[in-house]
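To assess whether the prediction recovers the assembly geometry, we first specified each molecular entity separately, as shown.
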Amino acid sequence: MTTRAHNRASEREAYAAFINSHPDYAATGMLDRLRAEQYGRLDRQRHTYLDCTGGALYADSQIRRHAELLDEHVFGNPHSGSPSSAAMTKLVERARSRVLKYFNAPPGEYTAVFTLNATGALKLVGEAYPFAPGGRYLLTFDNHNSVNGIREFASAKGSEVDYAPLTLPDLRVDRAQLSAMLDRSDARASNLFAFPAQSNFSGVKHPLELVHEAHAKGWDVLLDAAAFVPSNRLDLCAVQPEFVAVSFYKMFGYPTGVGCLLVRNSFVSKLQRPWFAGGTVNFATVQGRAHILAPREAGFEDGTLNYLSIPAIEIGLEHLQQIGIDTIQSRVNCLTDWLLHELLALTHSNGRHMVRIYGPTKMSMRGGTVTFNFYDPEGHLVDYRRVEELASRERISLRTGCFCNPGAGEAAEGLTEQDMLAGLEQDVEMTLPRFLQVIQHRGGKSAGAIRVSLGLVSNFADVYRFVQFAAGFQDQTKLTIGEVTFDIDSCRIIRDGA
Ligand SMILES: Cc1ncc(COP(=O)(O)O)c(C=O)c1O
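The predicted structure of the complete assembly is given in tokenized form:
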């Protein structure tokens, strides 16, 4: 039997075992048909796409429907009285209501502000939230840099900034410590608590009950839902944070360049925009040096919206609804569970584990993002940059680095404040690869990892191919960084050869 035929046979066997252990997968079969019909380019190119947290892929029909819409109409810049403008305004406003409906926002409770992306939505909160001396900005260690960055606005306005720690090895929020920190709100000032509904580093789903707990203790809540909503339901009737940030390309791949901030209406008038711009004012005068901000979303949408792309959001949401978010979640859960199990089972001939996973290894309260590193038979860390190169040769798209989530990485890899300060001491040219060299000499720690993430386009063949690729690192010794030996199970250094 040729190797290829042998691999095909073993893929069939593996699939049979997978279906046996994950019977729920069978009910997601419509996604296999959809992949063949709408995402055929993946299999035509033998491309294994494993970066769904980086960005979802679009279906052919989304592009076709959007192109047809543009082809059939004359669309102008919205918000004026001409027919071309009125036609566009109608579709922009329809998309806005559709977004609110998709997230089941109670009528009249939320406003949807279109932004460039989730980062744009988060920046709007940062610059307009009434941070002031005595107030606080509390966030979890596990946050994207676009949420970390809000601390600059908070501290510039005199608010205290504090981070709630994570527990090891699962990288979940330390509920007891968080609870104690939430007790420290100041009722005379504004207090903002921010956390991601799902980690873009570890895949942990942080409990949405934190929204209730924070409210009860006097906090406003910013929920970063960017990595959560592509495969989970966010129901704003059930949880009602003051702010929710999303990027639509992460949900359905197309269009890029449009995100959304959902703001609770009761909070809109408390936000203080630091400037005004075209489109955000009802009235502005040069001689009077005054302006009157437009109400609701208009006061937050600076300049001209990405109006031609916005109708594609309605198309994308319909696409997700036709599939059903529960179907997507179920598929992602089954495939992630299998992937975790297979990666954990990989060992070198000497019995040492090949993979260390950062975050939970069971599916309870976790999504389809799996972050890890490979280790060689001696316990040396395999260079993840080399892994990415090798994966690319096999047409596997994955991601390496720290995924713009430094706090989760620091917690996962046991990096201390001193380690980070040692890195910062170097020079302004500090990058992740240079930092890696610095901390290799500080007890052989590592920084950065490999991330594989699954979504609605993922199928068994994708994860099977990746596990085959991973198994190829068995007994490989020439791909490591430095000379430091780890015990993967205890995460302790065994020998530092430096
Ligand atoms: C959890 C999370 N928040 C925020 C962002 C920022 O999204 P964007 O780059 O689309 O602004 C990302 C992007 O990866 C993310 O995963």
